[in-house]
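To: structure desk
From: M.T.
Subject: fold request, one chain
Message: Could you run this one when you get a chance? Sequence is below, nothing fancy, just the single chain.
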Amino acid sequence: MRQIKLPHLPSDVEAQQSDLITDVWYKKGKETQIKQDKIEKKVVMKNIVIFGAPGSGKGTQSDLMIEHYGLGHISTGDVLRAEIKKGTELGKTAQSYIDKGNLIPDELMISILANVYDSFGRGHKGVIFDGFPRTIPQAEALKKMLDERGDKVAAMIELDVPEDELMTRLIKRGQDSGRADDNEETIKKRLVVYHSQTQPLIEWYKKEGLHHHINGFGTLERIFGDIQKVIDNL
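Reply: Done. Structure tokens follow.
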């Protein structure tokens, strides 16, 4: 390495120069470390949107992801019930729509999710969004909300199970639980609604480059192994 010879300076000037150089390098090093910490934080936050029809095993696989990766779980149904129970302003507003039999506006739902994400989600290595989004405008709003926080949806995981297998699982579940609404006709209607809602979203997430198809028919271990491959490569 080429050395540059400096002119001789008095000892007190040399000391000041040395302190200045040390201070500059300390500050630069500290700034670099702060930037690196931010980068590492963003890498760790693995936010997942999970889709799966009734009977697909979505709940079971979500539990495995939570346990294995330290993810938080945000379910829109649970979040709404919690806000209403706590009597928050957002919860009261949501209740007013429910009482009138109206759908909760996307703006209100996003505000509720943002509050939960800020208070709960940041304490985890990422969040599983379950039951949201249900429409493309909701997906766009979720993307915007996370972007404002320097975060993002890292992957959309679709658990795909053949319809005849879903029917078998749900009919058996209805028989075991004694639920009268888990009959074949009702189940078919629920599956039609699910597919009509999610198919446009699946196409949207494909365009975003975030869609990951998982074969949800097989052993729990094999299915979760496929999910792990997706998450580990994020």
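Reply (cont.): Residues 1-9, 13-18, 20-43 have pLDDT under 50 and may be disordered. Let me know if you need anything else for the meeting.
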